Amino acid sequence: MSYKQNSFFQEILVNEVFYVATKSKELIRHEVLGKNVVCAWSEKSKAETFLKKLNIDYSNIKKIDIDRFVTYEMDNLFEEGEEVLIDATGTTDGELVNIVEITNELMSDLDNIRLKEFVNDVAKEDAVFGLSNQKEKHFILISDDEHQRPQIMPVWSIKSRAEKVRNEDFEECEIIEIEGEVFAEWLDNLRDDDKAVAIDLKSGVVGTVVSAQKVIDQLTF
To answer: Which residues pair with 17 in a beta bridge?
Structure first.
């Protein structure tokens, strides 16, 4: 089953966040077809409408970044095959979806969108930004041992995005800039060494990670 035409799916592709309600730090659940399921919404206003209409007591409506959710929270909160009620505003609407399936499809589409945007920006500006240890002339590599990923090179197509992440997560590093052709050469080396690339990484060290070969395949220079 594909979720691509689902409005919840489309909203998250654009905004990259969704909303849940909590009470005493526990996720609000609602009984649907005999199942007690977590509720999630693409807009805060939909959550407020649902909670008010059903007179559900809650403490907070929490905005969740989709990348942070996938990286740090999903595996701890949900079992394989677990369903979530999305975008319900009353007792007769909303849809039950497999949270793992819809999230995996979302992230696959987001990765493709972000990679295309990154490549277009680099081709336009002929610049790639990365982090460097003091006085070194190459981008740093970071490790993700917890998720058993290869070493990753974070790169950005826009300097302000790199600055935000550096200021919050890599204060000891400098930002350096290289030309697109130099970056393409570095990608060949990353591919040969089985290393990956983090495209326009967000604060908190979350975001799209793809193989060096996938970036090479999209380059237009």
So the answer is: 65
